[in-house]
Amino acid sequence: MSRYEYAEIVAQCALHGPAVVREWVDSSGQTHPLGGIHPAALLTAWSTEGWDLVTCATYGNLRIYTVRRPVG
User: What are the distances in angstroms from CA 60 to CA 11, 12, 16?
Assistant: First the structure.
């Protein structure tokens, strides 16, 4: 059975303009701030390190991307 490391990417959606990532949360719950990168750019960069998009959910003006990568 495969084991995975999970993380959540929190993007803030602007009323007019693109969404920007403000922070990401690792599997231990630690929050890591980011300087406003576009979610697609971050997901593309992370995919080169083995991360896959699992889900995307929108809550008001926030978009939460759950990603995972195999460990072990």
Answer: 11, 9, 14
What is the value of pTM for the model shown?
0.83
Mean pLDDT score, 51-72: 92
CB 35 within 8 A of CB 22: no
d(C-alpha 71, C-alpha 31), whole Å = 20
Q: What phi-psi label fits residue 45: left (phi over 0), alpha (psi between -120 and 50 degrees) or beta?
A: alpha
pLDDT averaged over the chain? Answer: 89
The length of the chain in residues reads 72
CB 22 within 8 A of CB 37: no
